[in-house]
Structures are given as C-alpha cells and as structure tokens.
Design brief:
Blueprint (H helix, E strand, L loop, with lengths): L12 H20 L4 H21 L5 E3 L4 E3 L1 H28 L5 H18 L3 H19 L6 H32 L4 H8 L5 H20 L9 H7 L2 H9 L1 H14 L6 H23 L5 H22 L2 H27 L1 E2 L2 E2 L9 H4 L1 H15 L5 H15 L3 H27 L12 H16 L6 H10 L8 E2 L7 H5 L8
Parallel strand pairs: 1-5
Antiparallel strand pairs: 1-2, 3-4
Length: about 500
C-alpha cells in the first residue's frame, strides 16, 4: 500500500500549493487588512508563474491518484499551464483597476486562487465526485466575484442571477450523475466506460438521458446557447476585471472537463453526444453573431462575442478526435490572448476617472490615443478571423478539423456566423477612426495593463511566424486522452532525482 507523503503526491503538487497559498493569503490579509491586496496580487502572479514552470518539469507519464479519482497526464499539464498563464494575465489587469474602482479588498485575490484550485481539479477529475467538487469550488468563488461591487445594484443583480442559474445548472449536473450511476452502477470514469460496453436497450437509453442532463449543466458553465442567458447580464454587471477573468480562464477548465468526459467514459456513445455538441455549436455561433449586432454596451458585446467563440471551439469537440480536441484548445488559447488585450484597452478607457462602457465612448480614440486605436484594430480584425492575425489560424484549424470529419454543414455555418460577427467588430473600428469625439481620455498609467497589452499584441501579430507550434503541443496533450490503464502514483520512497529524469511536457 502506498504511503502518502509529499513525494508520492507529486501529481497533486499544484493543487496543494494553491490550497496552501489560499490559506496563507487569507491569514496575511486578515492581519494586514485591505492594504495588502496589491501585495497579494503580485505574489499570486508569481505563484502561478512558479506553478507553470513546475508543471513543465513534472513527469508527463499518465498516473492516477486519490483512489483513481484524480488523473495527471500530458493533457492535464498542458491545460493547467494555459490556466496559469491566463491567471497571470488577469493579475496584470486587476491590480490598478481595484484601486481605481475602490474595490481594494484582500478577499478578491483569495477568491481567484480558490477558483483556480477548482479549475485544476476539474481538469484532472477522473470521477464524478471529484468533477462535482472541482466544479462547485470554482463556481462558488465566481458567484462572489460577480457581486464583488456590493454597493452597486447592477453588480449585486449580476451575482444573484449567476448564483440562481448556476444552482439550476448544478442541479442538472447532479441529476445527470444520478441517472448515470443508476444505470451503470459506477461513478469512476473507468468503471462507467466498462459498464457502457455491457449496456443495451432501455438501460443504455437511460444512461444517455443522464448524459444529456450532464452536458446541459456543463454547457451553462461554458455559456453555450441555449444555456447562455446569464452571460450578458453578468458580464455587464460584474467589475470589468472580473468580466475579463470570466471571459478568459474558466471556460478553458470547463472545456477540458467536457473533453475528458466525452473522450473517456462516454466515447462509446459518440453518435449520441455528437448531435448535442453540434447543436450547441451551431446555436452558439449564430446567436453570438446576430445578437451581438444590436449591442451598444462594450461588455455586453464581449459577452456575445464569447458565446459565439465557444461555438467555434465546440466544432473541434464535435469531431470526436484527438486532432479536433487539439484544435479546440488551440482556438481557446488564441481567444484568451486576444481577449486579454481587448480588456486591457477597455480598462484604459476612462474619462475623469470614470470607466467607459458604451461603443460610442470610443469616438475620437484614433486622434487622442492612436497607438491604442491601432492595437484595438488588430484585436478586432483578429477576432473577425482576418489573416494573417492569430484569430484566423484558430478558426482555420477548427474548420479544417470539421471538414476532415465530414461535418461540412457545420463548417459552412461557422463561416457564415464569422462573417456576420465581423460586422460588430468592424463597427468598433469605424467608431474609433471615423466618428469624432471632443472629450479627452485619461492618461494610460497602469504598467500591468501595458505589459498584458504588449504580450497580447505580440502574440496576435506574431503567431503567423509559427502558427502550428502551439497546435503541436496541444496535439501531444490530447493524444493521452481516452481510457487505458493508468500508472499509480509513485511510492513514497521515490527520489526526486528520479522524477527529474522523467520526460516533461515539451519532450518529443
């Protein structure tokens, strides 16, 4: 029997670190008060940078832990590194914003760390109970963050709507899990897969019915139509830094959870769940495109953009192949980087200390801040999928995967939705360059936002020089998906030097 100690639990090192530092930050904030918020945010960024480096160095061999409830493999490593990078970008966007909006409270970074802990657990879940625990840990933290501006009626309303609808989605997930357990007699992914192979008739139908409920709950978490109803109101009412966080990071974890579910225990019922994913993809692309045309508020516009882009990402999932899953995460990484740049610019847009919220507020930006206007133009073109910017390659690869698997109608609808959505992206460019505004903008003073903006812009413009490099890493990670025998976590007497000799994520 394995003796549990720090060495034998190396697959859980990132999660243990996040839990430990959430406690440390809480105690430190309790003693130092809200003046410690920016200090905690800086150390939080350093924490995620260290975790990303640690994940690269950990053995990439596929192992299970916690009685097979937790799995650690290349896919988990890759996805957690992406989440860690997203959290670093969010830290860069957040610090100055909290001071500007009078929201400097030490609980803010603590909640973000706890949300990240939930995301890490979701990515590595190999059991329905660990799936649910990770999902709820993330969700409970996000509910509070959405309502963090407690003196604002809109923020409180956003948090309440998110909580109520989130509770409904959790109920759907639990009901789906109960049906799956009732018809398969199992909660472990491995055991569910083994039982599905023996089911037929009414029993198999009942299990698929449970899967429908489970997918419905997860669709809420990624804001896929028709489970998107919370997204515009929450994006609009939440503090802008929280909106940026929602748009960038949680969807990656939820998509990883979805992909691990569909490629593992439910791979045998691919024909049934593929129809659901195609429906979610089509509805999200079209609704995100057409509903966005009527928006005047910038954050609501980004909400519908997020809904549409989830539809494109789901195209890769609908293929049911490792290459399709890789294209999905490639697309999500590109979207995360573009979104970080857009929100950095939106958070810069202030007049007399007041944050701007309407598209018409961008009038005259090309005259008063031409560099910002051109940067926003690049991001809008990239979100539209115009070559040779990063967004073009994201859409190109998911469309290619769909065509390769014979999903021609889905690819055509995706192209159509992309053309329609380009109208509201180009409208922003038109307002910046062709509409005149007289009121000057405040000076751009946040170093963190400038760094995030520069990083996003370099990525958006520079991906053309190595468009397939990240996709190659994503393919390496998704090749490990599926259910085959896991290696148990190492015994307690394994030396750290042994671990250093194991292949890491970036090894071929």
């Amino acid at each position: 029997m394995t003796n549990l100690n720090f060495i034998s639990l190396y697959p859980l090192w990132p999660e243990l670190m996040l839990a430990l530092f959430a406690f440390i930050f809480t105690v430190f904030g309790a003693f130092r008060g809200n003046t410690s918020t920016e200090f905690i945010l800086k150390y939080m960024a350093g924490l995620f940078a260290f975790i990303a480096v640690l994940l690269i160095g950990l053995p990439a061999e596929k192992v299970s832990a916690l009685n097979d409830m937790f799995v650690f493999d290349r896919f988990a490593i890759f996805t957690k590194i992406v989440i860690a990078v997203g959290m670093i970008l969010v830290c860069g966007l957040t610090s100055r914003y909290l001071r500007e909006e009078g929201l400097t409270k030490f609980e803010y970074p603590v909640l973000m760390v706890l949300a990240a802990l939930g995301m890490f657990m979701m990515v590595s879940a190999n059991h329905m109970m660990s799936l649910y625990v990770g999902l709820e840990l993330q969700s409970l933290s996000l509910y509070v963050l959405a309502a963090f501006r407690s003196k604002s009626l809109r923020s409180t309303e956003a948090g309440l709507k998110y909580f109520i609808l989130g509770a409904i989605s959790s109920g759907l997930i639990l009901f789906g899990i109960s049906l799956i357990y009732g018809f398969s007699g199992a909660l472990s992914y491995n055991e569910i897969a083994a039982q599905i192979a023996t089911l037929e008739g009414a029993a198999l139908t009942g299990l698929v019915f449970g899967l429908v409920f489970l997918l419905s709950g997860i669709a809420f978490k990624i804001s896929a139509v028709p489970f998107h109803m919370w997204t515009p109101d929450v994006y609009d009412g939440a503090p802008t830094s929280v909106t940026a966080f929602f748009a960038m990071v949680p969807k990656i974890a939820a998509m990883a959870l979805l992909v691990r579910l569909l490629s593992g225990p439910f791979e045998a019922v691919f024909d049934q769940w593929q129809v659901i994913i195609i429906f979610l993809s089509i509805m999200s692309m079209l609704w995100g495109a057409f509903a966005g045309l009527a928006q005047q508020n910038l954050k609501r516009l980004m909400a519908y953009s997020s809904i549409g882009n989830i539809g494109y990402a789901l195209m890769g999932v609908a293929t049911g192949t490792a290459e399709g899953y890789a294209a999905t995460f490639y697309y999500l990484i590109i979207y995360m980087m573009m979104t970080a740049g857009v929100f950095a610019l939106l958070m810069f847009m202030r007049r007399e200390g007041r944050a701007l919220s309407q598209i018409d507020d961008l009038k005259g930006l090309s005259v008063m801040h031409p560099k910002a206007a051109y940067a926003m133009t690049f991001f809008m073109f990239s979100l539209s999928g115009i070559p040779p910017l990063a967004g073009f390659f994201g859409k190109l690869f998911v469309f290619e995967m769909a065509v390769n698997e014979g999903l021609f109608a889905l690819a055509v609808i995706g192209v159509f939705g992309s053309v329609v959505a380009a109208a509201y992206y180009l409208r922003i460019i038109k307002v910046m360059f062709f509409d005149h505004g007289d009121e000057p903008f405040d000076n751009f003073v946040s170093k963190g936002r400038k760094l995030v903006l520069a990083t996003s812009l370099i990525f958006t413009l520079g991906l053309v020089f190595m468009p397939a490099h990240i996709l190659s890493l994503a393919k390496q990670s998704t090749q490990t998906l599926g259910l085959y025998a896991y290696t148990q976590a190492p015994e307690a007497d394994v030396d750290l030097e042994t671990l250093k000799d194991e292949p890491g994520l970036l090894d071929n």
